[in-house]
Amino acid sequence: MQSDQTSEAESILDGARRRGDVIRSELVRSRWIIPLADLSVALQMSAETLNGALQAGRLFTVEHDGHAYFPSFLSDPGLKLSQVERVVRVLGDDERLGEVAILHEREGFTLG
Q1: Can you give the pTM of this predicted structure?
Q2: What is the pLDDT of residues 71-84, one digit of tens each?
Q3: What Å distances lie between residue 74 and 23, 38, 77, CA to CA?
Protein backbone atom coordinates (compact mmCIF):
# COMPACT_ATOMS: atom_id res chain seq x y z
CA MET A 1 0.00 0.00 0.00
CA GLN A 2 2.78 2.46 0.93
CA SER A 3 4.56 1.64 -2.34
CA ASP A 4 1.39 2.33 -4.34
CA GLN A 5 0.96 5.71 -2.60
CA THR A 6 4.60 6.59 -3.21
CA SER A 7 4.33 5.61 -6.87
CA GLU A 8 1.15 7.68 -7.28
CA ALA A 9 2.73 10.69 -5.56
CA GLU A 10 5.81 10.44 -7.79
CA SER A 11 3.59 10.24 -10.88
CA ILE A 12 1.66 13.35 -9.82
CA LEU A 13 4.90 15.20 -9.11
CA ASP A 14 6.36 14.20 -12.49
CA GLY A 15 3.22 15.49 -14.23
CA ALA A 16 3.45 18.79 -12.37
CA ARG A 17 7.11 19.15 -13.36
CA ARG A 18 6.29 18.50 -17.00
CA ARG A 19 3.50 21.10 -16.91
CA GLY A 20 5.91 23.58 -15.30
CA ASP A 21 8.45 22.95 -18.07
CA VAL A 22 5.78 23.54 -20.72
CA ILE A 23 4.72 26.79 -19.04
CA ARG A 24 8.30 28.04 -18.71
CA SER A 25 8.98 27.15 -22.37
CA GLU A 26 5.93 29.19 -23.37
CA LEU A 27 7.11 32.11 -21.21
CA VAL A 28 10.46 32.07 -23.05
CA ARG A 29 8.84 31.69 -26.47
CA SER A 30 6.39 34.54 -25.86
CA ARG A 31 9.13 36.71 -24.29
CA TRP A 32 7.37 37.08 -20.94
CA ILE A 33 10.80 36.17 -19.61
CA ILE A 34 14.01 37.32 -21.28
CA PRO A 35 17.72 36.59 -20.95
CA LEU A 36 20.09 38.87 -19.08
CA ALA A 37 21.58 40.29 -22.29
CA ASP A 38 18.17 41.47 -23.52
CA LEU A 39 17.30 43.09 -20.19
CA SER A 40 20.72 44.74 -20.07
CA VAL A 41 20.13 46.34 -23.48
CA ALA A 42 16.56 47.40 -22.64
CA LEU A 43 17.59 49.06 -19.38
CA GLN A 44 20.92 50.34 -20.67
CA MET A 45 22.57 48.75 -17.65
CA SER A 46 25.57 46.46 -17.64
CA ALA A 47 25.14 42.75 -17.11
CA GLU A 48 27.45 43.11 -14.11
CA THR A 49 25.13 45.67 -12.51
CA LEU A 50 22.09 43.45 -13.05
CA ASN A 51 23.92 40.38 -11.77
CA GLY A 52 24.93 42.38 -8.72
CA ALA A 53 21.29 43.27 -8.05
CA LEU A 54 20.35 39.62 -8.50
CA GLN A 55 23.07 38.41 -6.14
CA ALA A 56 22.04 41.03 -3.57
CA GLY A 57 18.48 39.71 -3.67
CA ARG A 58 17.03 42.84 -5.27
CA LEU A 59 15.87 41.11 -8.48
CA PHE A 60 14.77 37.59 -9.33
CA THR A 61 14.91 35.19 -12.23
CA VAL A 62 13.00 32.22 -13.55
CA GLU A 63 15.19 29.20 -14.26
CA HIS A 64 14.53 27.12 -17.37
CA ASP A 65 16.70 24.56 -19.15
CA GLY A 66 19.74 25.65 -17.16
CA HIS A 67 19.35 29.34 -17.99
CA ALA A 68 18.19 32.27 -15.90
CA TYR A 69 15.52 34.55 -17.35
CA PHE A 70 14.29 37.88 -16.07
CA PRO A 71 10.66 38.95 -16.27
CA SER A 72 10.26 41.18 -19.30
CA PHE A 73 8.16 43.67 -17.35
CA LEU A 74 11.42 44.78 -15.71
CA SER A 75 12.28 46.48 -19.00
CA ASP A 76 9.21 48.73 -18.80
CA PRO A 77 10.55 52.31 -18.64
CA GLY A 78 7.66 53.30 -16.36
CA LEU A 79 8.54 50.69 -13.75
CA LYS A 80 10.70 51.78 -10.87
CA LEU A 81 13.17 49.00 -10.12
CA SER A 82 13.25 50.18 -6.52
CA GLN A 83 9.61 49.03 -6.21
CA VAL A 84 10.50 45.58 -7.50
CA GLU A 85 13.47 45.45 -5.14
CA ARG A 86 11.22 46.19 -2.15
CA VAL A 87 8.77 43.46 -3.16
CA VAL A 88 11.57 40.95 -3.64
CA ARG A 89 13.02 41.77 -0.21
CA VAL A 90 9.61 41.39 1.47
CA LEU A 91 8.88 38.07 -0.22
CA GLY A 92 12.32 36.72 0.49
CA ASP A 93 14.36 34.09 -1.26
CA ASP A 94 11.57 31.77 -2.39
CA GLU A 95 12.63 30.16 -5.66
CA ARG A 96 9.01 30.22 -6.87
CA LEU A 97 8.80 34.01 -6.58
CA GLY A 98 9.72 34.61 -10.20
CA GLU A 99 7.13 32.26 -11.60
CA VAL A 100 4.39 33.64 -9.35
CA ALA A 101 5.19 37.23 -10.36
CA ILE A 102 5.24 36.35 -14.07
CA LEU A 103 1.95 34.50 -13.93
CA HIS A 104 0.31 37.35 -12.03
CA GLU A 105 1.64 39.86 -14.57
CA ARG A 106 0.19 37.78 -17.41
CA GLU A 107 -3.20 37.90 -15.70
CA GLY A 108 -3.09 41.69 -15.39
CA PHE A 109 -1.77 42.09 -11.85
CA THR A 110 1.22 44.38 -11.47
CA LEU A 111 3.91 45.05 -8.91
CA GLY A 112 3.75 48.81 -9.17
Answers
A1: 0.72
A2: 999 999 888 888 88
A3: 19, 11, 8
**53, 65, 77, 60: which is closest to 24 by C-alpha?**
65
Distance CA 74, CA 71 (A): 6
User: Are the C-beta atoms of residues 73 and 108 closer than 8 Å to each other?
Assistant: no
Reported confidence tier of residue 28, pLDDT bands at 50, 70, 90: very high
Which residues are registered as beta bridge partners of 70? Answer: 34
Residue 60 has pLDDT above 70, yes or no: yes
The partner residues of 68 in beta bridges, in order of sequence, read 63
Which one, of 12, 29, 68, lies nearest residue 60 by Cα?
Answer: 68
Stated as kind and residue range, the H or E segment containing 64 is strand 62-64
**Amino acid at the residue 110:** T
